[in-house]
From TrEMBL:
PANTHER family, A to Z: BCDNA.GH08860, TREHALOSE-6-PHOSPHATE SYNTHASE
GO MF entries: alpha,alpha-trehalose-phosphate synthase (UDP-forming) activity
Alphabetical list of Pfam families matching this protein: Glyco_transf_20 (PF00982)
Residue ranges the record marks as coiled coil: none
A GO biological process held by the record: trehalose biosynthetic process
Name of the featured protein: Trehalose-6-phosphate synthase
Entry's family note: Belongs to the glycosyltransferase 20 family.
Length: 476
């Protein structure tokens, strides 16, 4: 047994290991909202992060970065295929996102999911100090709380799901649904992004296991398990600080200039995932150009599509469809040197992202379904002059928090198009009022508050209180 008193267990470490042809290893920040949110919490707690280093094969040695101990867990090539790409991302991911793409089930994937979860639980049980707090993250590791409780009943175990949790009738399709539910119930606290997800979970404990949930609690053996909503957020102060730097302001101006000083820049920043509604967004933009409600070069779109899960079939075909649509729009509406859609299939550093956010008149965050969508919150925090407009899907978790956004239903193309036009034509006064209100909200409801409220509910308030971002943002 080791002496780690605060442990986060997540599929991925905050950094991915990249080994070049000569065998030299470098580390690259891992994609996604989970890392963005948890990194500052772990740094403040000087905790231990157990996760996969992003490549198949032997795990690198444990090491320390920014006060966090990183403990890599090994995944073989077959496990990457079956546990990560298979059961996690081709079975659970589509199902939990309301089956916007058909889910695939293979029996061999489950076996691998089980074995990898057991490995994570094993490592964690070995590393945790007596009575330690362990915070398990996301759908890839739903069996870990139950497995860990069996090995180490002395631990305080929390679980947080970063994606939606489906209604009873969808969850019931899942092979091994009982084991998954029981795995989650190994935690003392099961956290979700939205209240409806917590309700779905509690309803399932009754439906599948015959438990009797009362309010937010369900009794399992002699333990009380709480299920509740804890909407995740960003490090607002850090985002505002970056956005106010001269480097970002200057770069934002350059971007506008490079795009030909359009009246309306519509920006999308997403992992290239079918849940994000990128195709629907592009189609809406094309139809707006077709209808003449928007015109190039006065209006242009910038779509950043971060490479993601590139070996999974649905992601490969999505990329083809998105790139075909971009080509079609540019073929029909672009001009020499002035494309209608600027498509960037790349990762950027935080400064470049902040400059893109600041340069954009409209940020389109229009997922068909999503847990939170931190990019929406990052955009708001970057709007230091309050001039931008956020077009936000009702089906993004962020819609529960950012009520002053221009809310749209991305499944309804007409509504989506109208949302863009309304945002493009909104008065400056209207946009500034909305943006100010959202920024005020985010200053209060930042990631530190999220961590604090979760850890307080888990019974370890001192861990949450330890995280206190240094600089407070300037008032409006
Ligand atoms: P998800 O977790 O599904 O990817 P979120 O919107 O919650 O979605 O979080 C995405 C995170 O990834 C954000 O913190 C965002 O800044 C970051 N990100 C998105 N696209 C890029 C990119 N092209 N380069 C670098 N970081 C990116
Ligand atoms: O938010 C859902 C999630 O799977 C996170 O666990 C992760 O941060 C992000 O999406 C990126 O996914 P992946 O780790 O599969 O690249």
């Amino acid at each position: 047994m080791s002496n780690a008193s605060f442990i986060v267990v997540a599929n991925r470490l905050p950094v991915d290991s990249v080994v070049d042809d000569e065998g030299n290893r470098t580390w690259r920040r891992s994609p996604g909202g989970l890392v963005a949110a948890l990194e500052p919490v772990l740094q403040a707690n000087r905790g231990t992060w157990i996760g996969w280093a992003g490549a198949a094969g032997a795990a690198p040695e444990p090491f320390e970065a920014d006060g966090v101990t990183l403990l890599p867990v090994e995944l073989s090539e077959t496990e990457v295929l079956r546990y990560y790409e298979g059961f996690s991302n081709a079975s659970l991911w589509p199902l939990y996102h309301d089956a916007v793409e058909p889910r695939v089930f293979r029996r061999s994937w489950w076996k691998s999911y089980y074995e990898v979860n057991a490995r994570f639980a094993e490592v964690c049980a070995r590393e945790a100090a007596p009575g330690a707090t362990v915070w398990v993250q996301d759908y890839q590791l739903q069996l870990v709380p139950g497995m860990l409780r069996e090995k180490r009943p002395d631990l305080r175990i929390g679980f947080f799901l970063h994606i939606p949790f489906p209604p009873v009738e969808l969850f019931m399709q899942l092979p091994h649904r009982m084991e998954i539910l029981q795995g989650l119930l190994g935690a003392d606290l099961v956290g979700f992004q939205r209240p409806l997800a917590a309700q779905n979970f509690l309803a399932l404990t009754r439906h599948l296991l015959g438990y009797r949930p009362r309010g937010h609690y369900v009794t399992v053996d002699d333990r009380l398990v709480r299920a509740d909503a804890f909407p995740i957020s960003i490090d607002t102060a850090a985002n505002e600080e970056i956005a106010t730097t001269e480097r970002v302001r200057q770069r934002a101006k350059e971007i506008r200039d490079e795009l030909g000083e359009p009246e309306t820049i519509i920006l999308g920043v997403d992992r290239l995932d079918y849940t994000k509604g990128i195709e629907q967004r592009l189609k809406a933009f094309r139809e707006l150009l077709e209808d003449g409600r928007l015109k190039v070069p006065k209006a242009v779109m910038v779509q950043v599509a971060t490479p993601s899960r590139e070996r999974v079939e649905q992601y490969r075909t999505l990329r083809d469809r998105v790139e075909r649509e971009v080509g079609r729009i540019n073929g029909e509406y672009g001009q020499v040197g002035l494309p209608a859609v600027h498509y960037l299939h790349q990762s950027f550093d935080r400064y470049e992202l902040a400059a893109l956010y600041q340069a954009a008149d409209i940020m389109a965050v229009t997922p068909l379904r999503d847990g939170m969508n931190l990019v929406a919150k990052e955009y708001v925090a970057s709007q230091i002059d309050n001039r931008g407009a956020l077009v936000l899907s009702e089906f993004a978790g962020a819609a529960g928090d950012l009520r002053q956004a221009f809310l749209v239903n991305p499944h309804d193309l007409t509504d989506l198009k109208d949302g863009f036009v309304t945002a493009a034509n909104a008065t400056l006064d209207d946009k500034m009022k909305r943006m100010r209100a959202m920024r005020r909200y985010l200053r209060k409801h930042d990631v530190s508050r999220w961590a604090r409220s979760f850890l307080t509910a888990l019974g370890v308030p001192e861990r949450g209180a330890a995280y206190n971002p240094g600089s407070q943002p300037a008032a409006d």
